[in-house]
Write a structure and sequence with these properties.
With 400 residues, the protein is of the alpha+beta class. The chain has three domains: 9-113; 129-278, Beta-Lactamase (2-Layer Sandwich); 307-399, Winged helix-like DNA-binding domain superfamily/Winged helix DNA-binding domain (Arc Repressor Mutant, subunit A), CATH 1.10.10. It has 13 helices and eight strands. Helix 10 (339-349) packs across helix 11. The longest helix is centred in the C-terminal third of the chain and has 50 residues, at 254-303.
Length: 400
Amino acid sequence: MRGADWSTGGAARLACKGADAPRSTVRLGAAAHTALARAAVLGCGPGNDDDVGVGDTPAALPEALRRTADDLAVAISRRDPPAPRAVLVALLQDVHELQCELRGREPARRMQAIAGAREGHARLRAVEDPEELLCRAAEETCRSCALDRCIVARVDGGDWVLVQACFQDDPAGAQAFAGRLRRDRVSLERSPLESEMIRRRTAVLLDETAAQRSIVAARDAPPPMTAHVACPVVVGDRVIAFLYAGGSDHGVDALDRDALRWFAEGLADLYERAVLSGRLRAQRDHVRQMASSATAVMTELCEADIELRISTNDDSAIASSATTVFVAPERRLESLLTRRELEVLALMAAGASNSGVADRLVIAEGTVKSHVKHILRKLRAANRAEAVARYLHQYLGDHG
């Protein structure tokens, strides 16, 4: 063991670190892999197992480096160290630098996650339809949270209903998964995990065992994600959807959970904004329609001729003019309709078609259609049948 070449530690550290620029995640993981492997040869630390391998910087890596640093410090203090003290000190320095870089990397990752969520919200801000917003959320979650896969489901009553699945590494698999689950409505009462998320209103980090309790663990095929993060989308005091995100072959950590929660909170605000905007647009169109209809009615009434009628007591003459619009339409159809329109309505009540009305009144069929249109608008009737019903109710009540 003492004959091994221990002099490459500092050179390897400088070569891996390169210039003053920070190392990438892969290079940082590779450097940690090397340091842990060298320490394992000396029996220091937990060694370099699969939980602290190259690539991502998993949650186990800081703990592995801490244990290795403690063991190296103990080895240096021994009377008979397992390697030259200078080599052990250089290796301990490597481990300390890796620990410092990991601690400095975490705030930077959190800032990147927050910025990613805000950029995703900005891209979705132009979406005005709530359903389209949920559909696009799957792809945007992958993009904003730097994850491979995302599944979006909405809450419909007490059921879980799939909306969209996005697997950036396997589009065909996403289509197959969506086709399999879109046929089903899963009761939330049969899913303890989703029920707990509804109760607690918070994101969860699921390991491979806990992930099997999620609805996204398909019943007839391997789950699309092993360990993953999940979060409810809460609008007001109601959970309207769930987001599930992760990777196909790698784990997730607490920062991925927080990133998904940040994205879900912004998505909830955008969803509520889209719903309220839709209601305002519908109300605006309704008000415009009412204003247009009122303008047309007032114009016609103001331009109508004044008609004199004799009262039933034959003791006075009364004037029927545009001011009679303030009389309830169900009580006095005469106050809304002209004499010709009353004639058309009476023939309609008798069962005459447009052509039949035209023949009886000796007018063009197009004129009859125009009268019918005016009758429906003035009586606020949806169709001919409703207008006839109001006519019969009026005259059967008066003469019954």
